[in-house]
Amino acid sequence: MGTESPTPSYREAYARLSRIAAELESGDADLDRVLPLLEEAREAYAQCRERIEAVRAVLAGDWADGPRTVEDAGTGDTDPDDPEE
């Protein structure tokens, strides 16, 4: 638990969750280790969920319309190919 970076990637956090789940499902986890494992799993889950929510926020935004220029931002103009605007 002390070797992870302060902000692990989604992949790292997911790998931690998978490792913990496998250990708990195997039934080999010592009872004294279960609580620390669950705490670590809760932390990894929160990190995964945070990243998923960030992606959802981006997908829900207007990013699909492409980048807007500074000039477009004040006028509502979204057609960069029109030289008259």
Features:
single chain
What does this structure look like?
- The protein is mainly α and 85 residues long.
- It is built from 3 helices and no strands.
- Helix 1 runs antiparallel to helix 2.
- The relative contact order is 0.11.
- Residues 73-78 have low confidence and may be disordered.
Q: The biggest beta sheet, please?
A: none
Mean pLDDT: 78
Which regions are unreliable across 5 or more consecutive residues at pLDDT < 50?
73-78
Number of contiguous helices: 3
SSE order, as H and E? HHH
Q: What is the chains' assembly state?
A: single chain
Rough outline: elongated
Class per helix and strand makeup: mainly alpha
Radius of gyration, in angstroms, nearest whole number: 22 Å
Number of strand elements:
0
Question: Distance N terminus to C terminus?
Answer: 57 Å
What percent of residues are in strands? under 5%
- Name the helicity range: 55-70%
